[in-house]
Amino acid sequence: KNMTSAELRQAFLEYFQSQGHQIVDSSSLIPANDPTLMFTNAGMVQFKDVFLGDDKRSYNRATTSQRCVRAGGKHNDLENVGYTARHHTFFEMLGNFSFGDYFKRDAIRFAWTFLTEVLELPKEKLWITVHISDDEAEKIWKEEIGVDPQRFSKLDEDNFWSMGDTGPCGPSTEIFFDHGEEIWGGPPGSPEEDGDRYIEIWNLVFMQFNRDASGTMDPLPNPSIDTGMGLERIAAVLQGVHSNYEIDLFQNLLKAAAKAVGSAETDNKSLRVIADHIRSCSFLICDGVIPSNEGAGYVLRRIIRRAVRYGNKLGATGPFFNQLVAALAQEMGQAYPELIEKQAQVERILLKEEEQFAKTLDHGLRLLEDAISGLKGTEIPGETVFKLYDTYGFPVDLTADVAREQELSVDMAGFEKAMEDQRNRARAAGKFNVDYNDSIRLDSETAFSGYEQLSGDAKVV
Ligand code: ATP
Ligand code: MG
Ligand code: MG
Ligand code: MG
């Protein structure tokens, strides 16, 4: 079946409504009253307290299409964007939830029925994983659903989901779609699983525990269900394309990006990054985030600067990023009217950021190029990374991204040391600028986790 993203969102919500679920609006990207989480990174976030038993709703089954950002914290995909076919910084997660109502059997049956009967996906292209310890889910899949054991495996960490370091968590079962042998990659659990042939489309979490700060897992009052399916990933499957960036929703964004930077091409890695980033940046601003030097505001600033650098790479000569808000409002304003209401405000904030970074971007890039051409090994010295950060406003992940394009790495330890030295100098000079030190610490932490990601999750398309 071919469906637009909008039709798919609707079909999902309606199917679960017909199975007794209450349709609930997406919550904000900024979690309400949750200091453990910077951004809403999954559909379950707005229901966290319901899972924990601290909140009660008038319904015990819910379904949502939740806007999510994964750019920092436990689930950070910023460095994957542009490198994989399946990751965005902003995406919509379709989900169905049971609060102490149905459990494994019905969750699996709903998912399978929706995929194979409502969407009519061929069963032989679907691959299943469950947690290594979960004989119950294995039995349901094999004996009740009748899934072919050849397309079934039991895995460890990949099948245990948690929202963050603390909070609700539990074993999961995941459904993958095989995009065909012309694409590199192996089935889940194989050495080539990070390729993009077998793409995870749906994760069903059997919410059973609450993990505390010490790592102890206490059983939840009621075993519950939390599922998440990326709208863009399932849209790609239905529209017969491999990459999320080829679906309907991205076509006009890519065109607008090409036009704004003056590029003759209408699809390449840089344009995809820009098309992705305009979504996260616009939605974050709509939800009240303002670019700044710390916390959520600094993550927003990093994403904007990353987009601006890619535009520069494509030859943009002036501010361009803010011009994409109109295309986004056109594309998604029906589902999210705030995009239209706040369009002018979002444009203004982006324009200001672009203008500010434009002042140092060229100089910084030149410094970086010089440093690279004079390089002996394959690692950019921490001192250089620090100078770019401190003088030119280059977030560390931006420098790391330039390095990665040339198959170089950055000396993170050296960067940390340069930062520490500067902090000590400031202290010795008797300056106790709390804000300043705070923002630096935050930056180095987020940058560091991003750096680890570089060598891990992200693989070339
Ligand atoms: P992956 O292994 O591909 O990174 P994940 O296991 O981290 O995905 P989950 O935390 O299980 O993802 O989230 C549930 C679903 O949300 C995924 O099955 C996928 O369809 C979708 N999803 C997750 N991360 C992204 C992303 N960065 N961009 C688009 N969709 C995503
Ligand atoms: Mg992931
Ligand atoms: Mg996964
Ligand atoms: Mg998953």
From TrEMBL:
Statement: the UniProt record of this protein carries the keyword Transferase: no
Keyword annotations: Aminoacyl-tRNA synthetase, ATP-binding, Coiled coil, Cytoplasm, Ligase, Metal-binding, Nucleotide-binding, Protein biosynthesis, RNA-binding, tRNA-binding, Zinc
Cofactor binding comment, as recorded: Binds 1 zinc ion per subunit.
GO annotation (BP), single: negative regulation of DNA-templated transcription
Residues that span the membrane, as ranges: none
Residue ranges of every copy of the Alanyl-transfer RNA synthetases family profile domain listed in the record: 3-461
Cofactors (names): Zn(2+)
Protein localization: Cytoplasm
Annotated EC: 6.1.1.7
Function: Catalyzes the attachment of alanine to tRNA(Ala) in a two-step reaction: alanine is first activated by ATP to form Ala-AMP and then transferred to the acceptor end of tRNA(Ala). Also edits incorrectly charged Ser-tRNA(Ala) and Gly-tRNA(Ala) via its editing domain.
Entry note about domains: Consists of three domains; the N-terminal catalytic domain, the editing domain and the C-terminal C-Ala domain. The editing domain removes incorrectly charged amino acids, while the C-Ala domain, along with tRNA(Ala), serves as a bridge to cooperatively bring together the editing and aminoacylation centers thus stimulating deacylation of misacylated tRNAs.
Protein name (Swiss-Prot/TrEMBL): Alanine--tRNA ligase
UniProt organism field: Amphritea balenae
Gene: alaS
